[in-house]
Amino acid sequence: MLSNLQAWTVVGIVGIIWLALSIVGTVNGGPAAILALSDTIPLLLIVASAFERWAWRWQRIHPLLVGMPVVLGTWEGELESLWEDPHTHKHPPINTVYLAIGQTLTTVSVRLLTDESASGQMAGTIAKQASGVRAISYTYENTPFLGLRKASPPHRGGAFLTIFGEPPNRIEGEYWTSRDSKGMLRMRRRVRTIAESFREAQALFDKDSPQTPAS
Q1: 68 found inside a domain
Q2: Is the pLDDT of residue 120 over 80?
Q3: How does strand 73-81 pair with strand 95-103?
Q4: Are 81 and 99 in contact (CB under 8 A)?
Q5: Is 151 within a domain?
Q6: How many other C-beta atoms can be found within 10 angstroms of the C-beta atom of residue 151?
Q7: Backbone dihedral angles phi then psi of residue 24, each to the nearest 5 degrees
Q8: How far does CA 192 lie from the centroid of its chain?
Q9: 84 and 169 share one domain
Q10: Residue 11: phi, psi to the nearest 5?
């Protein structure tokens, strides 16, 4: 996947080429051809920006014209920690968690929302793997809620999550942290709204709330 800088570099190159063609057009059209053709460059940039932000999501052009899966929204699923309590030698119970994903054609932003903390992405991307499937890989910083920080201090980590289906219907993968812990994430349901908090995400998936199936 192109980075945001790379994408806009391509747009800039297209603009330069278009300007060059407009200059060449003066051979047939005279000086007025430059003005006529050059006036379209801002429009091209606006169209490119609109496609990058919104139009690329149109399902009819997936996956033939656009291979990037649309995972934008809030996903509900479970987190299974493989951390072992040194006293009981047991793993923590599996918890319901949410992934709040913001996305454009060339960028992705992931936040993990739990009942104890929220994780903010530091860097991330969606890339095609050798197997042909797409995966989200990102690093994050986790900040537990104030009353929990003594037992659970802030930390950093990373995750690698495979995207399944077209359109996507589930996201699964693993995470690891600087606290020497790791585990699995399995996301199954999605709504289009991007939640800002755990409670907001819970409300989005209440039985009485309208939902958009991930599939």
Answers
A1: no
A2: yes
A3: antiparallel
A4: no
A5: yes
A6: 8
A7: -60, -30
A8: 13
A9: yes
A10: -60, -40
Parent domain of 38? 4-53
Residues 47 and 124 in one domain: no
Q: Specify if 89 maps to a domain.
A: yes
Q: Quick one: pLDDT band at residue 28, thresholds 50, 70, 90? A: low
More confident: 73 or 5:
73
As for how many domains the chain has, the answer is 2
Mention every residue, 6+ apart, whose C-beta is less than 8 A from residue 101: 71, 72, 73, 74, 75, 108, 109, 110, 111, 136, 194
* DSSP notation for the chain: ---HHHHHHHHHHHHHHHHHHHHHTHHHH-HHHHHHHHTTHHHHHHHHHHHHHTGGG-GGGTTTT--S----EEEEEEEEE----TTT--PPPPEEEEEEEEE-SS-EEEEEE-SSEEEEEEEEEEEE-TTS-EEEEEEEEEEE-GGGTTTS--EEEEEEEEEETTTT-EEEEEEEETTS-EEEEEEEEEESS--SSHHHHHHHTSTTS------
The predicted model scores a pTM of 0.79
Instruction: List own/partner pairs for 171-174 with CB under 8 A and 24 or more apart.
Output: 171/71, 171/75, 171/77, 171/99, 171/136, 173/135, 173/136
**Which residues pair with residue 108 across a beta bridge?**
103
Considering only CA atoms, give the Rg of the chain.
22
CB-based contacts of 54: which residues, under 8 Å, 6+ apart? none
Average pLDDT over residues 14-19: 60
Task: Report how far residue 110's alpha carbon sits from residue 101's, in angstroms, rounded to the nearest whole number.
Answer: 5
143 found inside a domain: yes
